[in-house]
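Lecture 7, part B: from sequences to assemblies.

Below are the input chains for today's worked example.
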Amino acid sequence: MLEESLQPGWLSEEVKTGTTIIAVEFEGGVVIGSDSRVSAGAAVVNRVMNKLSVLHDKIYCALSGSAADAQTMAEAVNYQLDVHSMEVGEDPLVRSAATLVKSISYKYKEELSAHLIVAGWDRRGGGQVYVTLEGLLCRQPFAIGGSGSSYIYGFVDAEYRKGMSRKESQEFVVNALALAMGRDGSSGGVAYVVTIDQTGAEEKCVLGNELPTFFDE
Amino acid sequence: EHPKMSASQVKGVSTGTTILAVRFRGGVVIGSDSRASIGGEYVSSRVINKLVQVHDRIFCCMAGSLADAQAVTKMAKFQLSFLSIQMESPPLVKAAASVLKELCYRNKDELQAGFITAGWDKKKGPQVYTVSLGGMLVSQPFTIAGSGSTFIYGYVDAKYKPDMSREECMQFATNALALAMGRDNVSGGVIHLVVITEDKAEHVIVPGNKLPKFHDE
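Predicted structure of the full complex, as structure tokens:
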């Protein structure tokens, strides 16, 4: 007797941004990047989602983990940052944004399963990257996250150098994303890259066929 | 958040180890780390050699259950020496890989071991073969395996070039293993390399203090 469900499998699977996200500091700013695949089990439910969320003019965050949890956290922090920046009368610090994300992550760590990397530019500290995994707050020269990040630990360890220029940092991010998207089934689509510095945030989308290719492609 | 890949949590995945084999102009390099651990908590040996010689110019290394691998390689060694007497010439690398493949495929329900076989023979020169867990046999220019290999997919995809020289290939293998050992807690110790060419099979050890260092070390 064949057991058949009336509904396709992906309707009952949680929607996850199995993903690759990366952020790196350079002299004068940060570059933050992500892939664009959102999956529910084996189905790709969105192949062009921009996982780089605005927290403020010069502060972005990259989403990974459960799509719903990550989006909600980003929206909540966006609101809280607006209120905060009105109270202090100037642009918020990147550390403030990261602390707000960390507070939510830590308080609701049992209920939420999302990891946000916060990156941006402020007057006091220049370009900064913070990781907020499971409620910790740590500044790092660069950070990677998401399911695809496992495959590029070796690459980023070998290729990162201190004092990279803006262009080198952008290439570093795009190469890392392309390599991870090549190996991780839950990452793919296009690469979104945002470069933030004193003048503002510049968004770029690198299409699938424009991504760097490697020896076997 | 990246998926956890240690053996104790995922059935059918390699034991704590990082192994690889790479073809270069005139030979192959096969390499591994040297850590044997129990459950990822206790390092039972810091310096074991995971590279097994199955014939004069053919080596293999295993990923998976140590007991299964030892039993299988012992049987393969016997069958290959018998074969070389019958054929009155050294066995082909493909023959060695096929012997392992037959054993893995026919006993797939009982065994949990995969192999990398690399060597040199007169017919096709240097070759690298992978026998996966279920018994699939594939020839590749290079291959990586073991729990630590997930972290270096990006690195090897980016850095491999066909037709490298012996020195470039040894550097590539050493770097890849060192990066994996740096991120995987069940891989570590020293690096064992065997360089196989038409003339000889040379065993090289890179001790812990001579491992390549990267940006944060």
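Note for the exam: The mean pLDDT of chain A is 91. Keep this in mind when comparing with the next example.
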